[in-house]
Amino acid sequence: MSIEGLGPHGELATPADQLVITPAQAATASAARYRVAIVLHTTTSDWSRQQTAGIVATLGAHSAVVTEVVDCGFDKDAQIASLARLAGQKLDAIISIPIGNAAVADAHRQVSRAGTKLLLMDNAPTGLLPGGDYVSVVSADNFGLGRTCAELLSPHLAEGGAAGILSFGIDFFATNEREIAFRQWMETERPDLTVRRTRFEDIARAGDTVIDFLDTHPDIKGLFGLWDEPAIAAMDALKVAGRELPMTAVDLGNEVAIELARGGMIKGIGAQQPYAQGEAVARACLLSLVGEQVASWVVLPGLRVGPGNVVESYQVVWHSVVPQELMLDR
Amino acid sequence: MSESRKARAKVPRKPRQSAVRETEAHVDRQDLAAVVALLREGVALTRLELEAETGLGRAAVSDRLAALVDLGLVQEGEAGKSSGGRAPRLIGFRRNAGAVLVAVVGQSTLGMGVADLAGTLVFEHHEATAADLAPDAVVARLVTLFDWALEQLSFTSEHAWSIALSLPGPMEGPVDAASWLGVPVAMQLMTRYRCSVHLRSRIQMMTLGEMRQSPAAHSNLLVIDVGKEINAGVISAGHLHLGAQHSAGLLGHTPVAGAVDLCWCGNNGCLETQVGSAALAADGRAAAIDGRSDALAAVLASKGALTAIDVLQCAQGGDGVAAELLANAGRLIGSAAATLVNVLNPSAIVLTGRIAQTGDMLLAAFRETLYRTCHPLVTRDLITLRSVLGSSGSLVGAAIVATDALFEADTLAGWVGTGTPLQHPALLARIDEAERQRPELSVQPPSTFADSELAS
């Protein structure tokens, strides 16, 4: 898939595979034995575990040590406190996925002001600038993923009616881009549909939220989940309520992959490549530390996943053997 | 002269009472605007600081603050630092009392955002657009994005107090009635959002944005944007130069000696026909085809087309031909800029645009040309650097345009009495006139406009 989205400051994407560490750069990095911390919104999701694995493996291969992985529990205040603490430590770099936008901007800025390299994943808080405030944002093509999910959902939506978006109530560049792209595709290609959305801030409430949403708007014929965790919560709630709808989501997590393979509610997935993204942000980190200029917006294309290619896509994304539940037709 | 006339000439004339009232009203307006500006920019945080900065007495400052508190623009908060005696109360500008909508439409991209009343972006989004997208479609897309962003930020449309916008092509004249290819964009947005709309060119917005990035150092600033077009923005003594037709900055139409290529402006040999991004791509393609550059040939074979970014990336990869193309671009742009530098004596030059912002070759050649051709006096302390704002710079500049327009002295005086700029009598009159003339101007929200509910 090509890369469709522009960066947080309108940048053209640099494909992640263009970040290459030469043998000389690798030798420099290995000799330096850099110290890097990771700050994540959560460590419990499949996405986060894959990201962390990609980062740790790549840094480890160049003798850099990951000193700490912080789980902020989707809490902006926890992230602000963690970054303030880490900015005071002797670290060479911090890799962070900002939670929210303006609220955490200054906390991230303080990391750079402390002389620590800052690499961002998915999101650059509004107001932070590449070069001075951070090295690079390494991201999936979230705009492209939103469009993919719209394309994959459309065949399952009859003429007229509505498509629903299970949206995130926290201002987050990555999910904003997915939603904007989904809406644009629908507006252009399916002007017969109305697009509605509901928002949640607490994933634990996503299931109740979607039930209320459908009660209020019975014309909704399909749903788009901005990532797999709330999509799973919604799917489970709908199954309990006996109301099945076609759904698409971003992220090829285990549960949505199995649901897709067995022909269930999930009809298609726009998959990120979190392990590869972890590798890419680690390479960007190392290149920056050895003194190379790194592109400010580095992107991995998404994967378009349907029932016909879920097995091989799972292997690409997870770097592992697929669960037996996915091997239904193979 | 008769004696009586001589006698009358010695007695100073008393000004007309109406003139006195006009002067007092003018001073009052200026004072109020000055207080707002100081609070908005964070220059003054207490009553004492306001008195010191404005030269107004305590009663006058209190009077202005009372008006601003009534408007909901200002609030007094916690105590500040004491310098001996009682600690002063801090006065805060309520930057979220309203918002401004900003957008910059380019040849192939669209950027939009929402900013607070201090002009700080709180949301921005950029996307690629089709090159042949019709103006009506662009306006509809902007409305969709504006509405979505307002909803995402939990704002209503009444939060939008002003819009600042840039459209492709040179701007002509002051604009609340400007048309873009026959579509009255400004009036459409004005009737849709019932707020003022302000247009500037992209380079003008970008220049203001770069000035904000470092205002102390760059009160005399030259910004050069290198893309398909090459444009320059000028800040002189802290003020943006607009020109007689508000079209200042067409650096790309500087003639290049010996060049003959036809430019879209109708002249031959303009700078951007030689080193604009389209010209760079064409030169790169020529080098690929005639065998001078293996790297460019490989890209052309792989992708079927070449862009200026491909030339840049090949240069960064060590291709000598691509590097020379960029260096030549730097030299020609530097030559054109040298005249501006000699005449305007800026303290800093900022290069922006994807080609200029990435890599050092163009910048190095640009610098070398300036230092070689300009008077030493104007280059002695000159700083030349790449923009770090990128496309955000033009949105930041648009936010400055939109918020400055709201709090300009005469405009502010017009809506102080109504409580909101959306009820400014002149604005309401323009909206009424626009709707009377062409009721179909109002842009209908697209069918995919969504309801939303926020689940707590």
Describe this structure in words.
The complex is a heterodimer of chains A (330) and B (456). Helix content of chain A is 40%, strand content 20%. Chain A has 330 residues and is of the alpha/beta class. In chain A, helix 9 links the parallel strand 10 and strand 11. In chain A, helix 3 packs parallel to helix 4 and helix 7 crosses helix 8. Chain B is built from 18 helices and 13 strands. The N and C termini of chain B lie far apart (86 Å). At the A-B interface, helix 6, strand 8 and helix 7 of A face strand 5, helix 5 and strand 13 of B. Strand 8 of chain A pairs parallel with strand 13 of chain B.
Strand/helix succession of chain A: EHEHEHEHEEHEHEHEHEHEHEEH
| Rg calculated over all Cα atoms of chain A | 20 Å
Largest sheet of chain B: 5 strands, mixed
How many individual helices of chain B? Answer: 18
Name the poorly predicted regions of chain A: none
Main interface pair? A-B, 48 and 36 residues
Number of helices of chain A: 11
Strand order within the widest beta sheet of chain A? 1-12-6-5-4-2-3
Coarse structural class of chain A? alpha/beta
What structural category arises from helix and sheet content of chain B? alpha/beta
Strand content of chain A: 15-25%
**What percent of residues of chain A adopt helix (DSSP H or I)?**
40-55%
Large-scale geometry of chain B: globular
Distance between the termini of chain A: 25 Å
Portion of residues within helices of chain B: 40-55%
Tell me how many strands of chain B there are. 13
For the largest beta-sheet of chain A, the strand count, sense and barrel status come to:
7 strands, parallel
The mean pLDDT of chain B is 86
